[in-house]
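chain and backbone:
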Amino acid sequence: MGGEVLTQGVYKERTLRCFFSLYTATDFMLKLTEQMITGRIRGAKDHSTIAWFLLQLGKSGNEDVLNNHLVRNQIEFLKTSDQVGFPQLSNQLDVVFQTIILDVKLKGGDSAGSKIDATTVAVSLEDAQRTMRPPGTRDHDNDKESFRAISIIPTTSELQCQESAYLPSANGSEFIDNAEAATLDRQFRLMREDLLGTVKEELHTEFKIPSHKRRRVLPDPCIVNFGMKPEPHVVVRVSIPPRLQQRIRKMKNPEASKFFDEGPGKRVLQKGTLVLLVHDASAGTAHLKTKDRDIRISAVGTIVERLNPMKIVQIPGTDPVKQVRVLEVGVSFTSESMRSITQLLPSLKDRNVGTPMIGSNGGLFNASAGIFSLAPILKALVKLDQVPMCDQTVNLNQPKLPLVAHGGKKFSDLSSTLQKAVTSDQSQQYALEEIFKSNVVLVQGPPGTGKTYIGVQMVKAMLELEKKLLSECRPLRILCLCYTNHALDSFLLDLIKAGVPKNLFIRLGSSPKIDPSIKSRCLGEVDSSVSTKFGRQENAAFGAIKRESEVLETRFKDLLKSIAEESTWGKSDSWWQIIGEWLEEHYYEEHDQLYNFYGADNDGFTRTGKDGKALKNNYLWERWFSGQGRGIFQDEKKEPTGIWECSKSERKCMVERWNQEWIQPQVDLLEST
């Protein structure tokens, strides 16, 4: 099962589900631990197989796995193994299943139990780190000891938490003794804080200004539909903020639409950005200062589909019919947020009108932070079980000679043209010389100091020495990675200008703004003869995915319909048949107080009401649901007991609680779908 076919691509998630089925099977982990410790697992590669199995589970970020004592026992045993792959596998397990040391003193002598408030006046990073509490101790649901268990998209309670997130120092985490684990932990937490910190700051700033001047809070969000592609999402309609309304007020509809498609408005509700459903719970309290405002967050999601951004809708009930401009986007809300969103579904009767998501004191907050740019890197960090080139990048050991043509060569081995290109700048010459003796070279500097220039010269030097020593060394392959399409194209254009033939490189990835001189070197253009048709195995995989997608789409729509139609209970006889069965199973005492035992007795006589008609099965339920007494069953000499004592408002709360419990399995199924 460790083969590449099953652990990569389309089968990866299925394989992981299979592993979790094993993990959760009754006594599986207990029996596995016993078999290991008693020496009954003796195969030459058995220990490495178990280690690999644990690594796949751990890298999934499942908190139960990361904290399971049986898993810890297995890891401790594997440290003594001398089978194939050890001790390297033991180190990888230590990296993934990092141990947090809580009984430490932080720098400066402060205990780890101190805490700093996010609203405190500015302090130095060093002071903040001295007073930070350890990970996993904050009052929200996304502060975890292991960074792998942290949800990349923030939760509502996390965004509202006033305490600063735990951020390790540049020297490493005080709570993790494994250097590689500490490095991955630091990279993840600091990079994620770039997202989270920006969102919190923007939200705080937005509510400092009057509502009519806000540009990130889009008013009147409402649900109008649902979609399945590119992933399940809620179609949300919002009004255009007043500031943008002023800019497009005099534009005709085609011009205004173009403003949101191609103009400055295209940055509003961009695909891949984070959105929050927010409202000001302190609105109307004029004397409150901005910092005292009670800003509540009820849902978090990301924009996955920017539909026809500007749309013209008619406001019902106006005479003559009034038309307004609105924006519509597809939002994929988190599982936590969908719990509150599903409660709105029963109100979605007319999709042209939609159902409001928040009151007049709030809206849909559109953060500038793009989750699409950080999420792939954060996900990759979670999947790592070792740091590449850790000897140099983590342990800071002496660099090794590169095992390529230029390894061990000297600056003097280069052509005079290349030497002259950098001799005027000593730091650039030093950087170029480093590629001959170091397998890791880091060049950094502020803008305009020649980083791209020296990168081009490095590539030229590698190609030049490879050409001289082609018969002695294996062919050289250079992989150039850039953060953006623009940066990559800029570097490739500089290579061409420096005399590197463009037929030596192939550009991967796509962008609508690729420079024409580079476009011919894109992979699809270079070899159009490459077959794009699936082979037999790919066809089978695609067919399986398509069928599964269709089944999930049907289930998703059926669940939404079911939740929308059945999540608000009624008092009719048909409703009582459904509710009565559920109450009998989950609340049998309350069910007995609502069940009409007297429909017909053993002698065949039927109990009737005052009108002489037979009592319906829902007689008691209808009366209790409506806030009335037991009717003909009430003994006038006795006070009501049990649930019949409850007031009308108490009964309403009880019904809502039962209703939520009753529908929760469908909500859970919706989330898993």
User: Anything to note?
Assistant: The two ends are 26 Å apart (CA to CA). The beta strands are 217-218, 222-227, 233-239, 273-280, 295-305, 310-315, 322-333, 355-356, 362-370.
